[in-house]
Amino acid sequence: MVLPVKIFEIKGDADLELMAERLEGLREAEVSENSGGEAESLVTEVLDLERTEDRIAGVFSRDFIRSRHFRRKLVENPTTEEAPFWIKPFRGRAFLIVLAPSVARGVKKLLTNHVANKLSEAIFGRTGTIVETRISDETLRELHESNPQATKLIWFDDVDIPGVNKLCLAGSGLTDTKLYHDYLEHGRIWYVVFEVQKRKIVVGITRNCVVTLFSKSTVNEFIEYILDDILMIVE
Questions:
Q1: Would you say 175 and 148 are in contact if contact means Cβ atoms under 8 Å apart?
Q2: How far apart are CA 121 and CA 12, in angstroms?
Q3: Domains of the chain (ranges plus CATH)?
Q4: Which residues of the chain fall below pLDDT 50?
Q5: pTM confidence score
């Protein structure tokens, strides 16, 4: 099971009741003409919205036309993407968490960013009020070095070696290797994959707050891990 989420911060008024009220009415429809000249109604909306005492949960749904080749012909079919999301106040801040479970790799970032911008427009009337977040490379280093045997993979970026963009190390006990310390001198930790032993899950975390689940777990258990363990290390 591979489940990626991206964490954003809400910079505007994070009143849950007001946000839920504005998201409840989010529904946009547009007419698009397919290659056969037929009109398709494409809808963007929020479904299954739930407001509890400490969070909002819902599903962002978007229709679009997907093109593919079938028997040497280009075929266009209407398709729906759905991205569950959660809004959670935390320590005087408010975060948006977007899950993109069924989207092909390379499109996940586009979908989660699109959701953040559309929800920003719906709640605040403009984009730019829901923004990206960061986890420092020092924090990722601490996560790894606190239990190096649990680490599966580390990527480094901002490498100062000419002609080298990224470096990677795989395996346990990486703090004991000379290469690990050499790479720290030449780059910054961008991505760490490790086992969260108390929850018995394997996750990957990037500096731009994409958290990916690589092991068997329920969505609810994964999101609770995000809320309990990850929000506290966001810069």
A1: yes
A2: 11
A3: 3-132 (3.30.530), 137-207 (no CATH)
A4: 104-107
A5: 0.89
- Alpha carbons within 13 A on the beta-carbon side of 229: 16
Using CA atoms, how far apart are residues 190 and 195, in angstroms rounded to an integer?
17
Listed in sequence order, the DSSP H helices in the chain are 16-24, 108-124, 137-146, 178-186, 219-225
Own/partner long-range contacts of 63-69 (Cβ < 8 Å, ≥24 apart): 65/32, 65/34, 65/40, 67/35
Which residue in the block uniquely carries the two structure tokens 């068997």?
Answer: 216
**CB-based contacts of 163: which residues, under 8 Å, 6+ apart?**
none
Q: Are 96 and 85 in contact (CB under 8 A)?
A: yes
| pLDDT, tens only, 107-151 | 455 678 999 999 999 999 999 999 999 999 999 999 998 888 889
For residues 87 and 227, the answer to whether their CB atoms sit within 8 Å is: no
- The contacts of residue 46 (CB under 8 Å, 6+ apart) are 23, 24, 26, 27, 58, 59, 60, 61, 122
Q: Which residue has the tokens 């509890």?
A: 52
As a whole number of angstroms, the distance between CA 123 and CA 191 comes to 32
**What is the per-residue DSSP string for 50-80?**
EE-SS-EEEEEEEEEEEEEEETTEEEEEEEE
What residues have CB less than 8 Å from 213, skipping those under 6 apart?
A: 1, 2, 3, 4, 201, 202, 203, 222
